[in-house]
Amino acid sequence: MDKTESFPLFDKTTLDIYTQDTMQYYTGDIEKAMHLWPDGRMTSSTYEGIRGDDHYVIANYFENTSYPEFMDLNKTQVQEVAAASLGVVSVVPETKVALKAENQVLTEEQQQVLQNSSFELTDFCQGVDLNHEKLRELGVENPELRKSLSQQKSGREEIAEKKVHDKSDNLTYANDQPKQSPRSRR
Questions:
Q1: Contact by Cβ (8 Å): 171, 20
Q2: Residues 148-175: pLDDT tens digits?
Q3: Sign of CA dihedral 55, 58, 98, 32
Q4: What is the pLDDT of residue 45?
Q5: Helix axes 12-21, 152-167, angle to 10 degrees
Q6: What is the dihedral of CA 129, 90, 121, 128, to 10 degrees?
Q7: Pairwise CA distance, residues 4 & 10, whole Å
């Protein structure tokens, strides 16, 4: 499955920026994860056994996309749009459940992570089709004048590359947790 076509706003560099901006970190431990991304990476805000954010923190990802207005959606809408445009799965370690949209097709990487866990995969919503009508309903003005979601990559990759280059010394990977307390913009 081509992640670019299936999940048009998912971008590895943008994910690095989001992870840094929200003071999360990458983890290989699904028991600490909050989100499972299309490339199989998982992000967490768990520090010393306490989760620092709720799943709504995903809204911050959209700040570095061409659809920053998605940051202002309500919690339910943000989760639905994130599933459709990012392909992200919400992970709930407390109940050993992974949540996806009904119409969301998991990548091979996501399937492998979930198959190697004891987590139950369940649907949290039917899913949304981010067509022009739906985008207008979500507050996007004149969506027909914007590039389609599937054409978003090229315009923002250069901006995202610059941002991650400027911040690259501060990125946190794997289980290398920062020493400071978690903070996020939401």
A1: yes
A2: 554 444 444 444 444 444 444 443 333 4
A3: negative
A4: 82
A5: 50
A6: -10
A7: 7
Give yes or no for residue 23 having a pLDDT over 80: yes
pTM: 0.76
pLDDT digits (tens, 9 = 90+) for 104-117: 999 999 999 999 99
What is the spatial distance between Cα 147 and Cα 74, in angstroms, rounded to a whole number?
Answer: 24
Q: DSSP readout, the chain?
A: --HHHHSTT--HHHHHHHHHHTT-EEES-TTT-SEE-TTS-EEE-EETTEE-S-GGGGGGGGGGSS-GGGGGS-HHHHHHHHHHHT--EEEETTTTEEEEETTPPPPHHHHHHHHTS-PEEEEEE------HHHHHHTT-SSGGGSPPGGGHHHHHHHHHHHHHHHHGGG---TT---SSPP----
The contacts of residue 150 (CB under 8 Å, 6+ apart) are 4, 5, 8
Task: List, for residues 32-80, the tens digit of each pLDDT value.
Answer: 999 999 999 999 986 666 665 667 689 999 998 889 999 999 999 999 9
Rounded Cα distance between 164 and 173, Å, is 14
